[in-house]
Design goal:
Protein name: AcrR family transcriptional regulator
Number of helices: 9
Strand content: under 5%
GO molecular function, one term: transcription cis-regulatory region binding
Largest sheet: none
CATH class of the largest domain: Mainly Alpha
Radius of gyration: 20 Å
Keywords: DNA-binding, Repressor, Transcription, Transcription regulation
Pfam families: TetR_C_6, TetR_N
Helix content: over 70%
Order of helices and strands: HHHHHHHHH
InterPro entries: BetI_C (IPR039538), DNA-bd_HTH_TetR-type_CS (IPR023772), Homeodomain-like_sf (IPR009057), HTH-type_TetR-like_transc_reg (IPR050109), HTH_TetR (IPR001647), Tet_transcr_reg_TetR-rel_C_sf (IPR036271)
């Protein structure tokens, strides 16, 4: 029987292989054979840890969630709109890590639409993300960067929609969306929110 350390190391190697496959090929390309080929191992090794495609998919989504939680985040210069800008840049594909992350999430949407369990998990992720954006919007209102009557929820939804629209375009046409342009578009979006305030502080 292999030592626990060997078991854990093998599982980490498998996880890295799963991540590389799904980041490069999407969930349609995530198969036992593809993961085994990525590791230069047998499919029997993969099925020992993941007995079904569903288990493999769940593991890939768990990996994506873990990577989101541990990813280095942009540090805002101030709360409010600066914090909102940083939160959006945390998602937009401005570096290879975020490109891979977005390829994984976008490719998972089709699965989530077809599977009620995965769909509910995706809905909850959106709830958490909008809540995070909402906190920055509330701070912007408190700082006088947005008007007192601003609908905080609607602004958060608009920010989420802008972000994923930009993500999708950048994934399909990366040459048209270099990092400088992505950063400029994010800055312009956030500045546009602030310009709606008739009484800036």
């Amino acid at each position: 029987m292999p030592a626990r350390g060997d078991h854990d190391a093998r599982r980490r190697d498998l996880s890295e292989a799963v991540w590389r496959v799904v980041a490069e090929q999407g969930f349609t390309g995530l198969t036992m054979r593809a993961v085994a080929a990525e590791m230069d191992a047998s499919t029997g090794l993969v099925t020992h840890y993941f007995p079904s495609k569903a288990a493999l998919v769940r593991h890939a989504l768990e990996l994506a969630a873990e990577r989101v939680d541990t990813m280095e985040r942009h540090v805002p210069s101030a709360p409010g709109l600066a914090g909102l800008r940083a939160a959006i840049l945390d998602v937009v594909p401005v570096d290879p890590e975020r490109v891979a992350m977005n390829r994984v999430w976008v490719s998972s949407w089709d699965l989530a639409l077809a599977d009620p369990t995965l769909g509910e998990a995706q809905r909850e992720r959106y709830d958490r993300w909008r809540a995070r954006l909402r906190g920055h919007v509330e701070a912007a209102v408190a700082r006088g960067e947005l008007p007192d009557g601003a609908d905080v929820d609607d602004v958060a939804v608009s920010a989420a929609a802008f972000t994923h629209g930009l993500v999708t375009q950048a994934l399909f046409d990366p040459a048209a969306f270099p990092v400088a342009r992505l950063e400029g578009l994010v800055a312009g979006f956030v500045e546009g929110l602030g310009s709606q305030n008739p009484n800036p502080s």
